Amino acid sequence: MRRPILTANWKMHKTVAEAEGFVDAFLPRIATVRDVEIVLAVPFTVLDRVGQRLKGSAVQLAAQNVHPEAGGAFTAEIAVGMLADLGCRYAIVGHSERRSLFGEADEFIARKAAALLGGGLLPIVCVGESLGEREAERTFEVVRRQLEASLARVPKERAAEIVIAYEPVWAIGTGRTATPESAQEVHAFIRERLVERFGGAGAQIRLQYGGSVKPENVYALMKQPEIDGALVGGASLDPESFARLVSFEAQGESQ
Ligand code: PGA
Fold first, then answer.
1. Domain region containing 177
2. pTM for this one?
3. pLDDT exceeds cutoff 80 at 253
4. 251: pLDDT confidence band, cut at 50, 70 and 90?
5. What is the number of domains present in the chain?
6. What is the mean pLDDT of residues 58-81?
7. With DSSP H G I counted as helix, E B as strand and the rest as coil, what are the percentages for the chain, rounded to 5?
8. Which among 167, 208, 218, 236 is the best mutation to test ligand 1's pocket, defined by most ligand atoms within 8 Å of the CB?
9. Model pLDDT, residue 254
């Protein structure tokens, strides 16, 4: 059984005071949630203080990016060891905003994923097609290429531990969610590729959907057989909203 995993991606939002306020409001709201892994991917500047606040809870801390080198002359970059030092369990790599706005290529993303595994953290590797690629019916080709290249350095014996996030770029921050059925179709395709590449371990990898996930649509997405979680941007910024998201079973009952 793959354990559901919901990750908040705060992107470039929240001061220290705002982040601490979120955690203080969020933790009591999720006190009764069981069998769901909850992850907060927060800006580097609040990792330390959010990590302190999360101590004693089951909520995991994550970074939104990392540099593959262990250290050196890489001005403004952050190494895996620095994230481990702050108690991070995960780091997002290859988010479409990193790919499109900062020119990150699959090879660089592959090095980051391998560095995380080598340093005791786990990568959340993002893939997903743009609107143009979807309209040109290139979704499967693009996702296949991104998967193959981004996971090129993941050893088979560690594969089961990684997380993949499928985020169609046209659904991110647009309010335009993929339908549960079309998300499932791509997830099933990703699952086949992972099993081809990693054998049985590929069936254990958790697949998150991302792109305008909200309390109102999370249940239908999570009910799809190959959707094991969600990577949530906008709707993760408010503690009440993200608490409703991680309680997705209750959302289903109320719909
Ligand atoms: P969104 O962002 O939920 O605001 O669409 C998702 C993401 O980019 O991870």
1. 5-254
2. 0.97
3. no
4. confident
5. 1
6. 98
7. 50, 15, 35
8. 167
9. 67
What pLDDT is stored for residue 255 in this prediction?
Answer: 58
Q: Whose CA is nearest to atom 9 of ligand 1?
A: 233
* Atom 1 of ligand 1, nearest CA residue: 233
d(CA 214, ligand 1 centre) in Å: 10
Ligand 1 centroid, distance to 128 Cα (angstroms): 12
**For residue 37, which of 65, 86, 1, 73 has the smallest C-alpha distance?**
1
Which of 232, 237, 242 most suits a substitution to test ligand 1, by most atoms within 8 Å of the C-beta? 232
> pLDDT tens-digit profile of 157-193?
999 999 999 999 999 988 888 899 999 999 999 999 9
Q: For the chain, what's the residue count? A: 255
Give the ligand 1 atom nearest the CA of 96.
8
- Ligand 1 mean position, distance from CA 31 (Å): 25
Contacts of 91 (CB under 8 A, 6+ apart): 41, 62, 63, 64, 65, 66, 80, 83, 112, 116, 121, 122, 123, 124
Please give the number of the atom of ligand 1 that sits closest to the Cα of 211: 5
Distances (CA, A) of 152 to 44, 74, 155: 27, 24, 8
Q: How far is CA 5 from the centre of its chain?
A: 9
CATH number reported for the structural domain that contains residue 211 in this entry:
3.20.20.70
Report whether pLDDT(22) > 70.
yes
What atom in ligand 1 is closest to the CA of residue 165?
Answer: 9
**Mean of all residue pLDDT scores within the chain:** 96
